[in-house]
Structures are given as structure tokens and as C-alpha cells.
């Protein structure tokens, strides 16, 4: 407030103006302190503090909601305070949610539904929609549950597992749940896929993985790779291969698609890209005593064994899809340092279903100069094998210490 020219030259008017300014400043300061104190009290879990906060700021709807919830927790009826809060701020969904849940607890189902619907009307956020879906579950109204759970997932984020779990409580039909509840939102599909894998619901996970692959970005690759791993471990190699090839087609993986019917069964035999770590890509061991890496300028994979590695381990491996019963030849090149002739290190091709060795001959790797060699084998009945660089400690010899370079692996289907 500024003094007028007349007040500046009239002592009485100047005094009155200054007094008014001081009074206004004191009043403003008082209300500022009062509201700040009320806000601090409102954060308390003490009933007296919250009651005092409401008394200091009676027009604050959120304070009344907090007080109502505490009253309810202590066995008192919060309805009156909630109704006042709804009048003060009818656009606050928390007011309507609390009113609705309170009415439901008192057996007033129609009023509860009305209030929860009002919460969803004034706010399109997750909590009102999810609360309403839960209400319909408790009242056995499946017709209204599915639309509202879907609406909640249209905006939901963070931990959505409780939503997915409730869906599976309401139905055991994965296709129905996907159609009725799961929107085609990339983050939701990612979270739902992870949930299904955790629950070991592979048949339901496959169509979710397909939908996610169509929308996926690089951040979705771990979930999709985990899906291929679960499918491979379950022996569902056809679904795993379909998902892997779809990821390659979307450039989520830097590899060409696999096509065992046309002789393409090995992923990145030249080691031109970093190992995928899952699916049909190269997998590196995390065993103690083994370090490995890839040389990019002249592509090859190198592995070093310190002598402290386990007596049997698989430093490098890859699932390979084949044509059942057909003969194959694996060609490869390698060079070793400090490895004896009977190194215990070799390429093996194992039946993915039972671990049986499919090759009659698997030579030990030991050569100080680059050397070419091969392994011949026949595909197993289920047409899925594991290509493994395996180490087996030789009886009577110390644990292996040295290194090996691997290059130019080629898998050929023989006539």
C-alpha cells in the first residue's frame, strides 16, 4: 500500500494510513502463520491435532478428509465431515472415494456406488477407477468390473500386479482377460507380461508378448527375452522362435531371423554383435574364474580361464533350432594360449530336452595358431539343441589356466 500525496503532507492522514498498512500486514501475517500451523497439524496422526487443524482452517476439504479417515480408524462415524468436505471441494476425488467406502461399510450400496462413480467422474486418474473396480468385485458385479478395470489400466503405472492378480481371481481365461482388461499400452503390456512369467502362465504370456513386440522399444527387450527363455525351458521352441524372429524383424535385436527349414539355425556365428544373453543368442557364463569378451575390430570371442573355475561349466552356449533327424556339421576356428592337448575345453551339441551329446566326436581345443575344425551330429527328435563350449576338468590334471579365441562358426545342414 502506498501513501497518497495528500496523506504525505497531512500528519493525521499519514498516521491513519500507516496504521492501516500495519494492521493489514499483521492480519496477513497472522493468517499465514495460522494456515501454516494448520498444515503442520494436519500431517499428524493424532486425533486432537487433526481436529485442531480443521478448526484453524475450516474451509480446507483435504484436512476434513484426513480427519474423517482417522475418525473412521478409531471407530467414529466420519460421514458428517466428509459431506462437508464434498460441499467445500466437490472436485476432489479423495472426498468421494472416502464417502463411498464409508457408505459401503455401512451397507449403503447404492450410495456407495454413486459416490465412487462421482470420484471417477471428477478425476480420470488411476485410484478412482481402481477403487470402483474393487467395489464391483466385492458386490459380484462382473459386468461392470471388466470395463472399470480396463479403464484403470488405461492410466495406471508403477506396480500393477495387484490389478492383474484380481483379474485372474475373476477369470482363469487368459484370452478373455487380455481382450477385456488389458489395453494396448506398451508399459501395461510389459508389466503384464512380466506378471504372467512370474506366475508361470506361459500359454497366456505368448499373445501378450506378440502384442508387446509390435509396439516394443529397446526398453522392452529384457521382458521379451525373458519370455523366449521361459518358452525354451518349457520346450515350446516354436513359440520361442516366432517371438525371437519378430524381435529381429523389429530391429530390437541386431541379428538376422532364424529359419531352420532353410538352413539358418545359428545366431551370429561370426561374433559381430554383443551377445544377447538370452533367447537364441549367445549366453556367457557368470561362473567364477572365467572372463570373456568380444573383439569388435576383427570379430572374435575370447575367454580366459584362471584355474579357479568350477570343474564342469559352460562358458558359452546358444540354443539352436534344427530340423528333426537331419545331419549337421558345425565348422569353427579357434586359437589357444597355454592350453595342453587334453584341455578339457570343447564344442558340444546337446539335446535340449535331455542333455544327451549328439556328436560322436568333439575335439579338445588346443592350438597356438589359428586352426579350423568341425563337429558332425544329427538333430534330435524335438529339433532343438544347445551348442555349448564346455569345460570338463581332466582327471589327474590341475584346473585349466589359459585362454581361447573363437571365430567363424558356421552351421551347415548336410544332404
Explain what the structure shows.
The protein is 47% helix and 17% strand. By secondary structure, the chain is of the alpha+beta class. It has a domain at 283-413: Sandwich (Jelly Rolls). The chain has a five-stranded antiparallel beta sheet, with no helix packed on it. Helix 6 runs antiparallel to helix 7 (109-122) and helix 12 (186-198) packs antiparallel against helix 13 (202-215). It is elongated, with a radius of gyration of 34 Å. The model has no long low-confidence stretch (mean pLDDT 89).
Task: Spell out the key features of this protein.
single chain, 415 residues, alpha+beta, Jelly Rolls, five-stranded antiparallel β-sheet, four-stranded antiparallel β-sheet, 47% helix, 17% strand
Q: Determine and state the CATH class of the domain at 283-413.
A: Mainly Beta
How many DSSP H or I helices?
A: 15
CATH architecture tag of the domain at 283-413:
Sandwich
One letter per element, helices H and strands E, the order comes to HHHHHHHHHHHHHHHEEEEEEEEE
Quick one: biggest sheet? 5 strands, antiparallel
Supply the CATH superfamily name of the domain at 283-413: Galactose-binding domain-like
Anisotropy-based shape: elongated
The structural class is: alpha+beta
Side-by-side strand order of the widest sheet: 2-3-9-5-7
Strand content: 15-25%
Rounded to the nearest angstrom, the radius of gyration is 34 Å
Mean pLDDT across every amino acid position: 89
Distance between the termini: 99 Å
**Quantity of strands, as a count:** 9
Percentage of helical residues? 40-55%
